[in-house]
Amino acid sequence: MLDDAALRTSLDALAADQPAIAALIERLGYPPSRQREPGYETLLRTIVGQQVSVAAAASVWSKLEAALGTGCAPDAMLAQDFDTLRACGLSRQKQGYARSLAELVVSGGVDLHALPQDDEEAIAALVRIKGIGRWSAEIYLLFAEGRRDIWPAGDLAVQIAVGQIMGLDARPAERETRALAEAWRPHRSAMALMAWHHYNTPVF
């Protein structure tokens, strides 16, 4: 797992070879690992958080737990009607995604505790779930499973931070962001956390 100790070890390994990363750690300190429990609840939270702010996602989740109970269990999700879930802030599309996930968990169609060890194979397994694209799969593997070499290159904040860290004139596109990170293998998860840390830290 990519806990705080492993995260620091990975970043120190990168900093030893790359002065820009060493300087970044000196200026900002180490980011927290922000680990989540693997399983249904974390993946459902990922769906809720798609294309909305962190604050908006937290608000929706709070309303869902008030209506469905702590953790928004799959049986409770499937028992709710459209209007109840809409009142919690779930769009029609996200309701479809959430119900699909709940149905797969209840039926045993997906086992989130036995994903393939190979990262690309695990991503492929996750994106077969309705509403889970590559970004959501990568976020899940990074935060819920603590995998050490996940690189969510499609994340806007990561792209912006990488552009700034690397001194680029413009934000790199996803393909360029992915290519730039090749030099950070096998520590790309740590670098992703550092990128978010940089993005969220005010620069005076």
Describe the structure.
The protein has helices at residues 4-17, 19-28, 40-48, 54-68, 74-79, 82-88, 92-107, 119-126, 134-143, 156-165, 174-180, 188-200. It is mostly helical. The protein has two domains: 4-34 and 149-200, Endonuclease Iii, domain 2 (Orthogonal Bundle); 40-143, Endonuclease III, domain 1. Helix 8 packs across helix 9 (134-143).
Label this structure with key terms.
single chain; 12 helices; 2 domains; Endonuclease Iii, domain 2; 204 residues; elongated; mainly alpha; Endonuclease III, domain 1
Brief overview, please?
With 204 residues, the chain is mostly helical. It is built from twelve helices and no strands.
